[in-house]
Design a protein that fits this description.
By secondary structure, the protein is an alpha+beta fold. It has one domain. The strands form two sheets. A five-stranded mixed β-sheet has the order 1-4-7-5-6. Helix 4 links the parallel strand 5 and strand 6. It is globular and about 50 Å long. The model has no long low-confidence stretch (mean pLDDT 82).
Length: 167
């Protein structure tokens, strides 16, 4: 599925199920969109290979569209009330892109200083050097917030008739 088809599918889900989602604890459009973005585009919990008994609880969304990044951050900040000190951003660019300019661009979009960015990943030259603003990953990790988002997601999915359990 290409990115345009993914975007259309997400919008379909949002529009079709908005009424049902409002019945549960999700109370505004930003939460509906944020939870759906995390579900479709986000990083889920996983075991850390270095420590077999350790589980990480990343709350991450990666995208090139600044609107997606802003909506997700707004949901985390305004609806979930995250601890901003744990919030990080990482961007991925291509060799030949203006790293300083793109870091400043994403700093404005995310409203985070560049000092809160993880190391920028520089990939080999892409198909459109200089024509992209790179890819931005919102990075946050917190078990309690993760479980809260997961609960909202499960409630949203189970409120939709005909859907099975999420595992």
């Amino acid at each position: 599925m290409n990115s345009k088809e993914k975007e259309q599918r997400i919008l379909y889900i949002l529009l079709f199920y908005t009424r049902r989602l409002l019945i549960i604890n999700i109370v505004n459009d930003r939460q509906i969109i944020g939870i759906t973005l995390w579900w479709a585009e986000g990083t889920k919990s996983r075991r850390d290979k270095r420590w077999p008994k350790a589980v990480t609880y990343p709350i991450e969304v990666t995208n090139t569209d600044p609107r997606i990044i802003q909506i997700f951050l707004d949901m985390l900040r305004k609806d979930i009330g995250i601890d901003e000190s744990k919030l990080r951003v990482q961007i991925q660019i291509h060799k030949g892109d203006d790293q300083e300019k793109l870091e400043k661009y994403w700093s404005l979009i995310t409203q985070l200083p560049v000092s809160k960015f993880n190391k920028t990943i520089v990939r080999p030259t892409g198909n459109k050097p200089g024509k992209s603003n790179g890819t931005c990953k919102v990075r946050f990790s917190d078990k309690i917030v993760y479980e809260r988002l997961e609960k909202l997601l499960h409630e949203a999915i189970s409120s939709v008739s005909g859907c099975g359990a999420v595992g």
